[in-house]
Queue: 2 jobs
Job 1
Amino acid sequence: MRRLAVFTAFVERDLRKDLASLPGVFAELFLQPLLFLFVFAFVLPAVGGIDRSYLSVLVPGLTVMTAMTSAVTGVCLPVLIELHYTRELEDRLAAPVPAALVAAAKMTRAVIRSCLGALCFLLVAWLLVGRSPLDYGAGVFGAAFLAAVVGSGVGMVLAGFVDVKNIDAMAAASVSIVGFTGCAQYTWASLHALPLFQWATLLNPLTYASELARAGAVSALHPALCSGVLVIVAAATWVLGMKRFGRIVSA
């Protein structure tokens, strides 16, 4: 019970810091996906580039992309900054709890923040395109949660293996690669004309989250397969991330 109380206090402290810096959190979570939504929902339909039915593909994909990429940056950047610059993590590591619990608190905070960000994105999309979040099916909510869990694990792994001097470039590159090769802006089935790229996208966990978010609509991958892959990747990255974090702080 004592460890649970400490864990809860760690998570609550980080969430309070997020509330105190809402403009920065807003820019990190929403700027890129909202620009995507504006271009594809308003600009391209207005000039005859795409049909508005494409929104049933785009909005679920951007929702899970928001959840996953914000979770990646929401873990790796704060962990490295607080370890090597501000030294804020030293107080937490001095507490009588395992280092893995400190890492788990950081990842949990990122999951909560990213899920709330994904939900807010759906609500903003509702205002912009006139489709309720419920119109996309229940899969989008489960997919956003799993995407956030995977993203937080990936973020901790990056924090554990990437040199702090290169973290800005690595985080930007990782988010860009994940975001543009994860079938967020297109369906996996639509890549049939590019078979090599189509199969390469299966190496990206965002592909499974995007397809799960569209389950029952235009998804080509079975929801059970997508869920299973995401759970496995989430478990693997969380375990690896916590172990690596423990080694770094004990070195």
Job 2
Amino acid sequence: MIHALSGSPTLKKFPQARGRTQSEQCPDSVVLLGRHAPPIPARVADLIQEPRLQLGGFPSRRWVVTPHIEASHRQQVEHGPEPELRDSASSELKTLIGPLLHRRYGHRQGMDIAELGPATSTTVAATLSHATHRYLAVDLSEPYLEKQQEFLAQDTATQCYAVKGDSYALPIQDGKADLIVTSCHPPFVSASTQDKAIALDEVWRTLKEDGEFVLFPYDPQGRGADMAPLLEARFEIVDQSQQRPDRVAVVLKKRPLIYGASG
């Protein structure tokens, strides 16, 4: 069963996979938001909301999941070898981000965690899996969200949910997240400076007053030079980890006020 809750105005039907019924295709933990959706499930009703930010025109570098891309994703998750959909042991998620998360948050309990753009990755959710935490994956790709939740169920990770959503208009209520994590996600890497500012404003809005944001990669001397002033206006760097100078994971604590929030 799918809790149809995403920016689409109508409830979307998933294409039938051979030998599987509609209800077998999507984990119960996947949430879509839409005009004709049923109520948000009670277990995450205090976290999730319909996006309130009305986005304007799409700059040329803003990445979206078109129907063609979504069809490609579904083909990939249904027919691709599992090792290609999982994080490899040598990936930076496994060797850099996972250890950073374990070191900094492994002792914590009762956290509400959001990961932006995880695709089928499970490292963040598995590293922070705890009966008292709630993990929320936010991605524009329904096939990726479904497959990620299937993997997490196989791995017996607990309290993991997913919602189809845009990082430029997060489907998360104000001041609810203890931790937000993102790795190699286009809105924070390859987007225009204006769009990066919008995405960072959304992270700031949804974090609690003492909430933290783990961003990877951060390269203020290279491709990410425009991020430094945007981050300075919204966050304070409190921790970091790196394997080389241009591949840095930074931990950012939310500042009490935004100065020049639009970048």
